[in-house]
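<goal> How does this chain fold?
<sample>
Here is the protein in question

***
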Amino acid sequence: MSLLRLLNEAQDGRGLATLAKRFGIEETEAGELAGMLAPTIASATRKRAEAGGLDAVAGQLMGEREAGFFDDAARAAEPEGQAQGQRFLENILGSPQATQDLAAEAAGRSGVSPGIVEQFLPAIAAMLQGGMQRQMPDNTLQGMMDAIAGGGSGADKGAIGGGIGGGLMGAVMGMLTGGGKDQAEGQDVGLGPLLSMLDQDGDGSVLDDVLDGLMRR
C-alpha cells in the first residue's frame, strides 16, 4: 500500500477531512497537499535508506508508539502530534531547515497559506509514521537493523551477510534501489510492505525535483 493510499484510509477515510477542518482549509486543498506531501515523504524515506540511513529509517518504524496519530487525525494536528511529525521529518530530511523549505515549496505550489502548510506537513508526517508502524512487521525491521550492525555469527552470519552487498542487507538495498529479488540472491526477506509503501509513491512525487536539493544539506 502506498503512503498516499495509507493516508487516505486513515481514521476510516475521515483523516484528511479532520485535518482540513482542524486547519481551516477545504477538503480539496487537504487532498491536494496530501497528494504532494505523502509521495514526497515516501521518496525522502527511500532516499535516506539508499544513502546509508536504513538503520535510522528502521528505527523510526519499530513498534507502534505513534500509531495513535494515524487512528486520530485530530490528535496528530495537536502540538504533541506536530512535534512528533517534525522529529520524524527531521530524521528523514536531515534538518529542520529542509522541513521548512519543503513546507514552503508545497505552499507555493498549492496556494495554501505557508503558515497552514507548516502545521499540516508535520501532522500528516505523524500520521504516516504511525500508519507505517502498523503496516511494517517489527521482526523484519529488526532483521534489517541486525544486518546493518553485523549481527550474528557462524551460520547466522552466512545467512545475513557480513557486508552491504550480501545476505539480508543486499536484499534490502537491492530492492530499495530497484535491483529486486535477483540482487538478493533469491532471498525472501518479507519486505513487501516497506517496499510497497516507499516505491509506489516515490517516483510519482511532484516535489522530487526539489527533494534532492533539500536533502543534500
About this structure: Residues 42 and 199 are 7 Å apart (CA to CA). Confidence is low (pLDDT under 50) at residues 151-192.
